[in-house]
Design goal:
The chain is mainly alpha-helical. It is built from ten helices and no strands. α4 runs antiparallel to α5. The termini are far apart. The mean pLDDT is about 90.
Length: about 200
């Protein structure tokens, strides 16, 4: 019960930190902003986290734990490799539509990764694990004969980069094209290039 209460408190702090970083950016945010947004006392925040940086590094872990189960489920289900890729794209566009703040915050983490080694290492690890997941789908498609004899790493990296393209829509006007239309079009392009013609 006590652990459950602690996890809820941490989640409350991390949700507040997400709102703050989206509103103010990392450099302009302060611990006081997170305290105010969370509705908790400063002492409660510092009980769990000693610094702003520690909170935001933990926020990356929070996302990973939140996404890992549904993503692994996609890879482990009995669908064809094409079906798994479609589910993967669908998962991310649904997450974007439900809460674009997660994707907006990634812009900050990309920027931080360029100038802070701890953030670089943390985000690099997340993307490496995501890349491995996509590689499993490509390997499955190749082994089943569903996909062409493509280079697995290059293909997986291309897919990952295209999924990350959703972040563009958090910053810029889509010129009449929504993020869902983008994802559906990219899904069709990628599958057209991967699937063997029958």
């Amino acid at each position: 019960m006590e652990n459950s209460k602690q996890e809820l408190r941490k989640e409350q702090i991390l949700d507040a930190a997400l709102r703050v970083i989206v509103r103010k950016g990392y450099d302009n945010s302060r611990m006081d902003d997170i305290v105010e947004t969370s509705g908790l006392s400063k002492g409660a925040i510092y009980w769990y986290y000693k610094s702003k940086k520690e909170i935001y590094l933990s926020l990356v872990n929070y996302w990973v734990s939140r996404y890992s189960t549904p993503l692994n489920h996609i890879v482990e289900n009995d669908k064809s490799a094409s079906g798994q890729l479609q589910d993967l794209f669908q998962f991310f566009i649904t997450q974007y539509e439900q809460d674009p703040n997660l994707f907006k915050a990634m812009v900050e983490f990309w920027a931080l990764s360029g100038r802070d080694q701890d953030f670089h290492d943390k985000v690099q690890k997340v993307y490496s694990e995501f890349l491995e997941l996509i590689k499993q789908i490509i390997e499955k498609g190749k082994q089943s004969g569903e996909f062409k004899n493509v280079d697995v790493l290059t293909t997986a990296l291309s897919i990952m980069v295209n999924i990350e393209g959703i972040i563009w829509f958090t910053l810029f006007n889509g010129l009449g094209i929504g993020a869902r239309t983008y994802i559906e079009t990219i899904t069709d392009f990628i599958l057209s290039g991967l699937v063997k013609k029958t």
